[in-house]
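Two proteins follow. First one:
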Amino acid sequence: MKIGTVVRSSVTFISMKSIESTFFEYLGRKVELLKEEISNSNQIESAIARLLERNINYLYIDDQEYLLLSLIVRKKCSYTVPYLVRVHTIYISFFRMAAALPLLENHDVVIVPSAYCKRLFEKLTKRATVHIIPYGLDFEEIRTVKEQKKENSVCFLGRLSYDKGLTFLIEWWDEIIAKAGPAHLKIIGPLYGDYLDDTTPSDYVSTLNNRIAEKHLEEYVRFEGLRVGIEKLEMLSRSLFLLNPTFARYETFSLVNIEALACGLPVIASDWAANSEFITNGINGVIIPLKSISAYDVDINKEEWIHWISHYLQNRKEVAVMEKNARSSVKKYEYSNIIDKLVALLATEKVKMISGDWESYRNKRPIDFISFYTPYALFFLKIFSGIHHIEYHSLIEQELSSHVAVDDRAREEGKVPTNNVLFEKRDKFREEFFKWYFLDES
């Protein structure tokens, strides 16, 4: 089997870089993986054409890398290859994903990382079959980590931003020390935020550093910066457990959970996104329900967080039991097993070539294909202006312009800024959308 993919040559987000590099490494062991690297979205049409000349069976498309543009180009140019579409998140690219749906073909294969992500996708449409293929771990690397001596510390691992809950941990750390005795919080993640950059701390990190100083916590709370590979795994292994108080809207998997569990760390996490798919209370960690959350505010449950962190700092025997459970609970996420599952799925699909039919689409808007959307999704799509109200022949030019602008900034700055914020302003429908999309209220 041959699978082709188009990859961006510029630096990408740390989470995407981590996920995709390992995924491609293991996928390349099972299939013939062909890559075309591009530096600008104007090159995508010719890149796909070159891959087709090599008789690929599927074109792998990442929803964060030119999904809508790639689907439009396939229609416009009558390319005949089915797509393997990886959906990482939907919220931040809700409108772009909606515009892409009418362009999906029956023989395209859509994969998502979690049952939670599948539920969110199916809120948008019931027309596409979605398969759960989770992110995995490189257990070959994890097995090389030597046993580490435990420190009196817990850790936070991930993107350093407000919606990951880190602000609350720092605000409460003096109360945890007062209740459980001196303990250290190690914060692992690139200081710039989304990107592979420790040279200049983000405004958010600078604000947190100032708050740490104000609370006289410099001895107990420390930013470790970006750590990768064995260094990151060893640092995790020296900690007692991982804290993951996230309420990030875009999140659908949280790879840090399984990284920590594989290193023998129990995880204390918020009951948000897919966290409960990995963590079982008292077995390999604790799930703490949010007290409340809305489109504008969140209460992540201070009392419960302080209680459980303090409890496990004072009850190391319970932590030791959960350490053993932690490792065994994530064996199914070994990448070799996950890739086997994906290849088996692709092998069972009856791959047929696809006809272009561009004339049926060029003068229509995505919103015209009403049968592709669920009733509530259609309601919100009609209310909010966006690319789903633009005709496809104009949309391809807009997408090219949008991506070119992003690509140009990427080359200048060495980073890829996001331009997919769902809502820029407060409006009367934002809260209704949030309740429907995240809280199953309608």
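Second one, unrelated to the first:
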Amino acid sequence: MNKYIIPIMVILLLLSSFTGVSSTIIKMPPNVSFDGNLLYVGGDGFGNYSKIQDAIDNATNGDTIFVFNDSSPYYENLIVDKSINLFGEDRNSTIIDGKVTDSVIVISADHVYVEGFTVTNCIQDLSDAGINIFSDWNTIRNNNIMENKCKGIRLSSSHYNLIENNTLKNNKFHHINLKDESNNNTIQNNTLTASDNWPYACDGISLIESSDNLIINNKITGLIFTIGIGFGTKSNYNVVNKNRIYNNPCDDEANSIQITKHSDFNLIIDNEIKSNNGSGIVIFFSQGNEIIGNLIEFLPSHGICLVDCRYNNIVRFNNVSYTDRGIRLAIYSSKNFIESNNLTRNTYGIYLSGTNLLGFTPNNIISGNNIVENNYGFYIIVSSLYGYSNDSLICYNNLINNTQNAYDECNNSWNDGKYGNYWSDYEEKYPDAKKKPFRGIWDTPYEINGGNNLDSCPLINQWPKSSSTYNPRISTSFNSLFQSLSERFPILNLLLNLIK
């Protein structure tokens, strides 16, 4: 990854006396090969091409094509079938317009570099895009991909591509779409947005049957989306890190990050999701995903929601506030771990409905969370369609100043036989309770509203808050955490190199 982020080297390419221009500066990253010829498009130099496709047709592998902006816009649909570097003079004024007849740029060769263009007006067809990639090891960098009638950037069966520092604006359907086993790609530092008057919905970044990709440091704002970042149909071992998804006027059913259709073992870490409509992070029918250290706030629906998720999804170290349901487990979501989260000022801190499946004991483990100033700390109910939410182990949580600390009409274990939970209203409810010597617990069980549940080992003092104050932006354990996860998520090796 270091080769993509080190300062850009500037190579001065002197034009011949026939170009009519004394010199042209092309910013060449050090990872870009410059072994071939230099061809020019536009401008008034002798021998310059008037069409970009003509220059491509006359280029050979390793050549560089420089496109002047004074002949822009270029009304073309490009086929890049050679390993070349394609540079526009200025990303805002060097325009390639697809005339709404096809994809604007189709890349079928490996090792293609595209930088410095506005790419616009592709046709409205789900198989087309502003930039449509069918190959490997390409770089799409510093471009404006905008006002395409279909997808902004599309990768199909493409691997080891870098999509970096682009602005994607006012596209339809998807800004960036990976499909058909497009694996081991990096999508970083892009801005995905729309104008206030843009009438079309457009999802942010979508992956279908694509694995081992890194999605990092992207900004998604101002979109009417159904999904901000989404994995569908067996998209596994992807990493979503340090993205900001905020101020998106999507509908109430939208999800800022969504994992679905047996997309397993993905890592969603240290993202910021705030002030959008809809929900934050939602997982359907998937297992082994880890949701770690995300900031989620000011959403009208769920902060984090697991639906029919069985086996070893881990939700930890997240800060969730000002949502309707901070963390929700629903519809047979079983054998998951909800631990060390901060849930503050939500309607419901943790909400369970219909989670029973196959009599697992314990069903879910919910421990070490700070649940503060919510209307309900815990709210656990019987679903009219999916039945009870029994047999979860709920312990070591701090329930502080919630309007009602807990409501449970099912049958769950509120302690592990040694320690239970801390209840801020305990001494008010049980003024005659005694402290058990050397145990750190009270002698009188805490009664849970809604049914017959008891916390038989209520804590005298709060469970240590250090267990739920992890912040990957400042934590000294950030690198060690990533190291421990890197065997499960090979793409993290790229990220580790990036943050060293």
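SUMMARY FIELD: Residues 1-23, 469-481 have pLDDT under 50 and may be disordered. The longest helix spans residues 478-485.
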